[in-house]
Amino acid sequence: MNKIKLIISREYLTRVKKKSFLVMTILGPILFAAMMIVPAWIASREDTEVRTIAVIDSSGIFVDRITNTDYIKFEYLENKSVNSLKKNFLESKYYAVLHILPSITYEPTAVHLFSNKQPSFSIKSHIANSMEQELRNQKLRANGIDENVLKSIKSDVSIRTIQWTDDGETKESSTEVNMAIGYASGFLIYFFIFLFGAQVMRGVIEEKTSRIVEIIISSARPFQLMMGKIIGIALVGLTQFLLWIILTFIIITGVKTVFFPELGTPNAQEVVVQDLFDQGTMPQIETMQAPQNLDKFTSILNAAKSINYGVLLGSFIFFFLGGYLLYGSLFAAIGAAVDNETDTQQFMLPVTIPLIIGIVVMMNVVQNPESPIAFWFSIIPLTSPIVMMVRIPFGVSDWELALSMGLLVITFIGSTWMAGKIYRTGILMYGKKVNYKELWKWLRYKS
Amino acid sequence: MILLETQNIEKKFINHLALDDVSISIPENSIYGLLGPNGAGKTTLIRIINRITAPDKGAVLLNGRPLQANDVNMIGYLPEERGLYKKMKVGEQALYLAQLKGLSKKDALKKLKYWFEKFEIQAWWDKKVEELSKGMAQKVQFITTILHEPKLLIFDEPFSGFDPINANMLKQEILELRKKGSTIIFSTHNMGSVEELCDNITLINKSKNILEGKIDDVRKKYKSNIYEISFNGNTEKLESSLNNHYELIDHKKVNGNNAVKIKLLHETNENELLSLILPAVEIISFKEIIPNMNDIFIKVVNEYKN
Predict the structure, then answer these.
(1) In the prediction, which pLDDT does A291 show?
(2) Is pLDDT above 90 for B256?
(3) Backbone torsion region of residue A57, taken as left when φ is above 0, otherwise alpha when ψ lies between -120 and 50, otherwise beta
(4) What are phi and psi of B191, to 5 degrees?
(5) Of A205, A210, A219, A442, which to mutate for an interface test with B (greatest number of B Cβ within 10 Å)?
(6) B-chain residue closest to A4, CA distance
(7) What is the DSSP string of A39-76?
(8) Within 13 Å, how many C-alpha atoms sit on residue A423's CB side?
(9) pLDDT for A394-433, tens place per residue?
(10) B219 reaches A (C-beta below 8 A)
């Protein structure tokens, strides 16, 4: 037992002390944080150049009807032809020229936008939307429907989902939030299994090619060496994961307070949400009169709060470790069977395929977490770590979770036992092209 | 007193028998040579003694009782194909390997300090192994093998990769270890060092133990009754003094003197030979030629082939 501890600590310390670990630890959260901050930053830095577009409206129905925005202004020119504008276009102040033909009322293509640049999508869609709306309004008016009626029939629907839990409580949930969390956890598990599983394999190959393995196994049993390596690297993974969470949190908070101080202070919205959450009663939610965007924000925040993070994090660590141990032992066996990394291809394929199936199924499960596909792939141990993690935010019944976890444990014990047998024989085998038949023979060797 | 004994060891691999009924016994406090052509099964036997692999049949006894898992702490093993973690620092690595052999960190540090000073390699402590030359790495490896003062040491081709100075130093260390009470199994193809170091040998060929014994007995057993005589005088005169119990097999000049090799055929001995040739020439030296291990190795292996 002492020896396996020694091996674990060597595997752990040599990796944690590496420069690449430090680099990954710092870069990881910066990338994560960037993924969250950059879109916000870009959104806050919209194009601020004011563009003026000349409108030649031969139909006469759109004059002063296309709405100006902060950055797009429209100027309606009379008695000008497109050709006359084209001549002096470069000297003019215009970004583009919009030419509307009289046939626009029945011919959708009777409108042209001339410019020396390619107009942006947002400009194009703004013009199209404004014109469509105007045409619709005019047609409705022509049929005798009055402006006020028009305004009053404009409606929006935004569904908030509320779950009745088994113990009679109600809690607000959000399909979108669940999807996001499901995706993120599934991908993380996939990524971790690959990243650290491959590290196990490389570690075994390194020991084999540097020929130290015979010295080690004259002191410790091969199984101790294999398990020590797998466990040591699992701890490296958990350490990295923990550091990422902490650092990401620090970076996001830091950036928020420095660049978006208004988001950092508790404002009216959050106070409202807090009240609502504390009382958490249905009538309050229903009767709450709030602007629509506040409503949406409240809803997401409530949903995010309604997720049981204890269960989520607990199962994440369980499925990460379970999946990693299962695949890690297979990776160790592959490492032992080959002489160098280029020979790993033929054995890598059957190990990677279930992982990739897991990711493919995940895309489907996110849409439909209760489907038979979702059920079976979250029970089958080779894909369950990924697929079950996607289902958990949506709520999974206890027996399914227990079955999935139990099967995973049984399978990784089995795979470790099997890998141990291949490993024991493989690490002392050099210069031999190994195939599956050979591996089968190793499995049946007596210890 | 026998330290280690293997009894009728048999080990099968997929398509061949690696060891077939191999029994050896290694006396305590001796150097035991494990000889044999490539692929004879020496490494398999060493791995069985190290508990790296298990025999299909037979037993390994240490001090008369079956070898157990913890006994590996009493064994120091330097494999033929050896290596260290390239990216790890020398000191850290030596400490790790010593602790794997059951030493406490404190003891290991103390002993490592002693050996690093003795070999004058303290400056390497914080170097990575990949920065060392092959010979340097071998020294570190040797230290890690003997650091826990094992009762039984197993060296597989220990001199490969060493220059003559370091090889000699290593030889002295091995002799020193025996003096201190260690028992050493020594596997090599270098027959010169076998003669120099070993007390006993065994020769394994094609999975079988075909020759075992004290090295002096083995050499005596294979002597061919040839004597080398150097003398002042006429070679023809000497030759004519011999009768049909002798055969002159070689003659040459050594340092201005004549020298001959004479084989005693049958029903005679050294004294009779001397009494025959003494009147003929002036004898300077007379010695029996004892075959060296190299000749014995080749002879025995070839004989076994036929």
Answers:
(1) 52
(2) no
(3) beta
(4) -70, -25
(5) A219
(6) B100
(7) HHHHHHT-----EEEEEEESSSS-TTTSPP-SSEEEEE
(8) 30
(9) 888 889 999 999 999 999 999 998 888 888 888 888 777 7
(10) no
* Boundary of a domain, candidates B204, B220, B236: B220
Chain B's closest residue to A447, CA to CA, is B54
Domain total in chain B: 2
B295 within domain boundaries? no
Whether residues A197 and A148 share a domain: the answer is no
Test A218 with B79 for CB contact under 8 angstroms: yes
Q: How far is the C-alpha of B29 from the C-alpha of B34, rounded, in Å?
A: 16
DSSP H helical ranges for A221-308: 222-259, 261-264, 268-279, 282-287, 292-306
- What is the domain range of residue B114? 2-220
Domain annotation covers residue A33: no
Spatial contact of A183 and B21, defined as CB atoms under 8 Å apart? no
pLDDT of A323 over the 80 cut:
yes
A54-72 residue pLDDT tens: 888 888 888 888 888 878 8
Which of A10, A206, A218 lies closest to B52 in CB terms? A218
Chain B residues in contact with A3 by the CB 8 A cut-off are 100
B10 touches chain A (CB under 8 A): no
**More reliable by pLDDT, A220 or A162:** A220
We report the CATH number of the domain holding residue B243 as 3.30.70
Q: Does B18 touch chain A (CB under 8 A)?
A: no
